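ERR on first pass: missing label on line 2. Operator R.T. fixed the label and resubmitted. Corrected input:
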Amino acid sequence: MTTQFIGKENFTIHTQTVSESCPSNIALIKYWGKYEHQIPANPSISYTLNHCKTNTTMEFLADEPFSVQTFLSGNEEVKFAEKIEKYFKNIEQYLPWILKGKYIIRTENTFPHSSGIASSASGFGAIAKCLMALDEAFTGKTSEEESLRKASFLARLGSGSACRSLYNGLIVWGATEEVQGSSDLFAVPYPDTEIHEVFKSFNDWVLLIHEGQKSVSSTVGHSLMKTNPYAERRFQEARENFVPMKEILKSGDMESFIKLVEHEALTLHAMMMMSDPAFILMKTGTLEVINKIWDFRRDTGLPLFFTLDAGANVHLLFPADASEESIKTFIEAELLQHTQKNGVVKDVMRF
Ligand code: PMV
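pass 2 clean. output:
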């Protein structure tokens, strides 16, 4: 199934340092539930962010015994190093040189640490890009397209949603008849000609409702879908949602876009509540913000809406157009008070 990504047996390794940067992403149709080898239970589509990034420098010391040392913002992170070691061992067939040296990995996020913004997507995206830069140095040049595709494939094996962070714009991961070339193994950009202008310049302001560790990790969340009695229906719905999404993206139908994106976010959290054991990642502030957004939209008709990740933070979505100043004023005056420390990360998607 994955033979196209098997690594070249001929390579010449040497000590080398590479640096790469990768943004985070936010899903509009969500991936929640997976099968063995990080195969998603349903296709997903996301926006890649612009400012929320991970910058990673990877030092490879050739011919030293295999080991991994990681530093996050200068502080050594032993747990993360163990995770990366396991990951490298897992992907050896795709990069046959990977266990033949020592790694020192320095990484930093441009967004606040423990803000709850998914750092695994940007983190594994940046690591996969570094690995492909080393692969090119050891095995020879590959085309940019092939290299990005393999980086997406490798990032997926680290953290599923990371595979979507390799590309800018609207990105699809998971095979669906609605998107040509889509695959369970790697992400592909959604065709540019099929996207209305209004969706090409969008704000995502992330309200940091609750900073710190989540009570349930996404790994546990995904696995709880295996016994969730609503899982099959959910996977089916996500697949079906690609049909209206495609039409919406083409036509620029903002009202339907808002309805679909908010429904996807609430469904994700509904699945958590219907798991056994049940869990809730939203906080009081999350619900207060959602209600205020709905009131604001009813009162003004302006296109401010939300999506949620697997956490309490609210991603405020609104087009970068004539309405954005009124929306920004409302957010500052009414929504910021529900964050923990007036925390907001102002990002924008442009492509
Ligand atoms: O990639 P993971 O295993 O961290 O899962 C992420 C799942 C969601 O962020 C909740 C949804 C998605 O599609 O990104």
